[in-house]
Design brief:
Blueprint (H helix, E strand, L loop, with lengths): L46 H15 L6 E5 L14 E4 L5 H11 L4 E7 H7 L1 H10 L3 E7 L34 H8 L3 E6 L3 H13 L4 E6 L11 H4 L4 H4 E4 L6 E2 L5 E6 L4 E5 L19 H8 L8 E8 L5 H15 L6 H5 L8
Parallel strand pairs: 1-2, 1-3, 3-4, 4-6, 5-6, 7-11
Antiparallel strand pairs: 5-11, 8-9, 9-10
């Protein structure tokens, strides 16, 4: 697949509604985003559900296919560009954020998506991902987290929990795992969210919000690996456990969960941490339940730190607080320099100036 890069020209935001001239004659469907390539993941892999979610969401975003670029690194998730009938780049291990940044800088018109896994993105690629997030490059990052290196036969990954037995940790991992969302917040991400592979309507809404966000957006997707780490998230994703073990957060809404929304999250003022309460019991009322504010960074840090079984796992848009975007700043600086120096410089003259010599 080829990268869609061209001369650095500033064009309209690809997420704006296409005008009549740019709009396709026939509305696009999910099938228009499916390629002729055989989808090759293990039977039952959560990647199938994620792929379907993205293919079905794409027509709703109103972005022409020629403006879409999917960039990936190495791993099971990295097959993604082959299955999306858009531009795409299958790059090298951990370097997808650098390629995605380059694509966006070369042609800001493009709508760039980065697909990575917990190993590709947070191990060898952690440094590159950090800089994409802190710079606030306008790229949607989808991180598939299965807590294992699935492509290379199930070794433990940066997100594997302590005690995880794998071919590379036969006696159990002693590493303390990385929290993808805590990492993203620490790197300066202005948008973070979570979804679950098989809960497709909720996942689609989080991805839709990420796409609407101007700047770097980071989504962790809990993705089951049925071969090497089956049921890793069953403690909070299993149907009988989900209502009491996870909470879907929504801006401006009380942090309530449970089969009948009977439980809520309260901020313990003494220990400054979230705790589960039941309004109507032990002197607790509805007023004690926190309201989700997605612009509150401190609240976001508390939410991403919650782990099952003591606290529900938060899904949805956890944090969204827009800030100036990197490529906009680069383009504005470049144009300002050009104007100050009287227009576009002569590159040939620049190369031949100063200390030169013939070989």
């Amino acid at each position: 697949m080829n990268a869609a890069v061209s001369a650095p020209v500033r064009l309209p935001d690809p997420r704006s509604t296409p005008d009549a001239a740019a709009a396709p004659a026939t509305p696009l469907t999910a099938k228009d985003f499916a390629t002729d390539q055989e989808v090759r993941w293990c039977p039952g892999c959560g990647d199938y559900a994620i792929l379907k979610t993205i293919q079905q969401l794409m027509p709703q975003l109103g972005v022409p296919r020629e403006r879409l670029v999917f960039v990936s690194g190495i791993g099971c998730a990295a097959r993604f560009p082959y299955y999306m009938d858009t531009y795409g780049m299958h790059t090298i291990h951990g370097r997808a954020p650098a390629f995605a940044t380059g694509v966006k800088l070369a042609n800001p018109e493009l709508d760039v998506w980065l697909v990575t896994g917990d190993g590709d993105g947070l191990s060898i690629g952690g440094n590159h991902l950090l800089h994409l997030l802190r710079r606030n490059v306008d790229v949607q990052v989808l991180l598939f987290n299965n807590e294992a290196y699935g492509l290379t036969k199930g070794q433990y990954s940066p997100t594997s929990r302590e005690g995880t037995r794998t071919p590379s940790t036969p006696e159990g991992s002693v590493d303390h795992p990385v929290s993808p969302l805590a990492f993203a917040l620490g790197a300066g991400a202005r948008f973070i969210g979570r979804g679950i592979d098989t809960v497709r309507p909720r996942l689609a809404e989080v991805v839709r919000r990420a796409h609407a966000h101007r700047g770097a957006s980071f989504i962790e997707i809990f993705q089951n690996c049925p071969v090497y780490n089956d049921g890793a998230f069953a403690a909070f994703t299993a149907r009988e456990r989900a209502p009491v073990a996870q909470i879907e957060v929504s801006h401006g809404e009380p942090l309530r969960f449970g089969r009948n929304a009977e439980m809520g999250l309260r901020l313990d003022p003494r220990r400054l941490r979230l705790e589960v309460v039941e309004p109507g019991r032990d002197g607790m009322t509805d007023e004690d339940v926190c309201i989700h504010d997605e612009t509150n960074r401190v609240l976001a840090q508390l939410l991403v730190a919650m782990e099952s079984p003591d606290l529900p796992v938060a899904t949805g848009v956890v944090y969204c607080d827009p800030a100036p975007e990197f490529v906009d700043a680069v383009v504005a600086q470049r144009e300002g320099v050009r104007e100050a120096r009287g227009g576009i410089a002569d590159l040939d003259a620049l190369l031949r100036s100063g200390h030169t010599w013939r070989v």
